[in-house]
Amino acid sequence: MAASPTYRLSIFDSIDDGHHTDYLAYLIHQFSHKQDVELLLIVPENFIQSFKNNRQVWGFDLGNNIHFHPLDSSTIQRLHGQSIYKRSMSEWNLYVDISEAWEASHGLLMYFDYFQLGMLLGKKAHFQLGGIYFRPNFYYRKASWKSAFIKKWMLRLSTLRSSMKVLFSLDHKAVKHIRPLLRKTQVMRISDPVRAYEVSAEELLAFREKWHVPANKKVCLLFGNLDPRKGIEVFLQSTKHLTSEELGQLCLLVAGSISPAYQAHLEKLFQQYPNLEIISIFQEIKGKDIQLCFEAADLVLMLYQNHVGMSSVLIRASISKKVVLGTHYGLLGKLIQSMHLGLVVDAQSPVQIAEQLEQYLNLGIGFSKEQMEKMEQENSEKAFADTLYQGLFL
Question: What is the pTM (predicted TM-score) of this model?
């Protein structure tokens, strides 16, 4: 008879797009090989169905120690239809109820930021808790003193009331600012996990042919969950400041999931730039197709508008050894500059973006291959899961 698992870990995440689904898939795969852990995922049923249907194609394992509690579409709509404050309370209380009924010994909030009010005012959790903190931006210079004060006190009180064991920060520079605020909670750096895929020359050629990616132009990739924060509009505006010869050397590849309304907006906007070749892949992209998007590109655009924290796009660019043109703001700007991964710019200035594009086309952009390899190694899915395991259980 097999020994009982040492730990019973419940994980909650009600969002089924973007990095959320990637993180969950990585944890399922990695924890399938940690037989001392019984894992319950409280997640949207859409994610569960998609993962089970595609996991073999994507290359993910599913151990018999992995269990699911599906959140149906009506539950998701009810939760997400509330104000952010009511949603924090509702999701937290739901998470506690399900976890305690399952007799969890440990819990992990995949998006700690959302749950602080619920943790402070909602039900008491009687199991050890961890959470991933995405946007600890109270220490940013642009943060108002009032906003920073509120965020600090919410962080301190919510973790104290919930007896939180460990808080994982994706923003590594924030750790030294968080630690003095928390008494009993351990604070750990955690890397943004990314899976690298082997891509053959034949697969890359097939991808280029399928999407008509030109071989004689510099392909600028804008990848991810597409919304106004990605800086698509400002990039398009910047091309008005290029010469016709420079514009003819560029191709914009826009790839990722998108809302119907924003897709209609972009398709109409693209028509206003007939001299710029634009390729759009408006769909959720998973597995090896992600890698193919980056392999087909020459320059990765990260013109995020006041983005806080890390982004897996920077890591994927490093995996494919592609240079970046990104925002100078926040952690991303510091990483791009300090690790020599490309150029930074005021992502709200079309003129400055155009100037950097001119430099790229005429002089190129230097980068450090060694730093790209370091970025890849530090942000593997295994490193991500191992850090969670260590912080939660050891």
Answer: 0.75
